């Protein structure tokens, strides 16, 4: 009985703590609700004041007070307007942000201890600032926090000056893969403005940054970068650099690059050969068919996949090359050839020609016999139900003959 004397006090303590937590939850919700309503009221006030400015009136006194009291709220309202405005009205708001010292405020926030304040400063400067904030923002590209670096890169791209482009290109050597990817995305947003510094970076010889520069130039279809890309594809010391340069040439898509790509298709490193197959597919020159046909038998799986896919995209001549591979001795190459014919929709097309008596019919029967001999019959069996009577009977006969043989 003595041991049960502690039960009721413990129950009362637990119940009291529960009531206390419920009370704290209610209070927190009330505080948040009041804060949210106040913020909405301030945003509404800021919108009204900014509308007066855009209507051509002088800067209301209330705007100065709001900029001093709640710069974040005013900035949010201004950015919302800026995203909708163009031309003179947009310039008017940018000048107003500088006049209200919002730009100075966020330049000061760049050195804040809180990473969220630094990130917010970078984000707002991307909208409210101009060329004068490129220097301060560039310092955030080496910030210790990944998010801050990414936001700073986006802000620099939004400002979009030649100096901003050069600073972003310099960051392509950042040791963080994620940062380099974010910087690359923003350089692509800058477009032609980034091409010249990217070409300089490509020629710098620093493999990681050069490879990323080649990749961006390819995504931008920057034809003026072709001489540097051709040199990198031929003489680049790093595997990734050569592979990215080759792929970029394919994306630019000039048939004059085919000789260089054919040489890359014989590179000692398989990533270069794999991207060479991709690049040849993008250019679509049938003169590459003999090399691609050999590459379907490459010792590396990705090279075989890309080469077979390239052949499937090169029309009837490419399809014939795949059929020759299908009739060959290399089991792995036959598998790839069959898969490429199936994924390219060739299988569906040829089975409909099986009953024809002309050249198309003979070619269709040759392809089906090769696929059956290679054991690639799963797709053919699925197509049986889609064929009319004669075609279905012909395909069933060929499948049965293949099994018996």
Report on this model:
- The structure is a single chain.
- With 405 residues, the chain is mostly helical.
- The protein starts with 6 loop residues before the first helix and ends with a helix.
- Helix 11 (195-202) packs antiparallel against helix 12 (207-219), helix 12 (207-219) runs parallel beside helix 14 and helix 16 (270-283) packs parallel to helix 18.
- It is 74% helix and 0% strand.
- The longest helix is centred in the N-terminal third of the chain and has 48 residues, at 7-54.
Oligomer: single chain
Beta percentage is under 5%
Tell the overall outline: extended
- Provide the structure class: mainly alpha
Largest sheet: none
Mean pLDDT, to the nearest integer, reads 90
The total beta strand count reads 0
Determine the number of helices (DSSP H or I, runs of at least 4 residues): 24
Succession of helices and strands:
HHHHHHHHHHHHHHHHHHHHHHHH
| Helicity level | over 70%
Low-confidence stretches: none
* Gap from first CA to last CA: 90 Å
Radius of gyration: 33 Å
Q: How are the secondary structure elements laid out?
A:
Elements: H1 7-54, H2 61-69, H3 71-82, H4 87-99, H5 102-109, H6 115-128, H7 134-140, H8 146-159, H9 162-170, H10 177-190, H11 195-202, H12 207-219, H13 226-235, H14 239-252, H15 258-264, H16 270-283, H17 289-295, H18 301-312, H19 315-326, H20 331-343, H21 346-351, H22 359-373, H23 378-383, H24 389-404
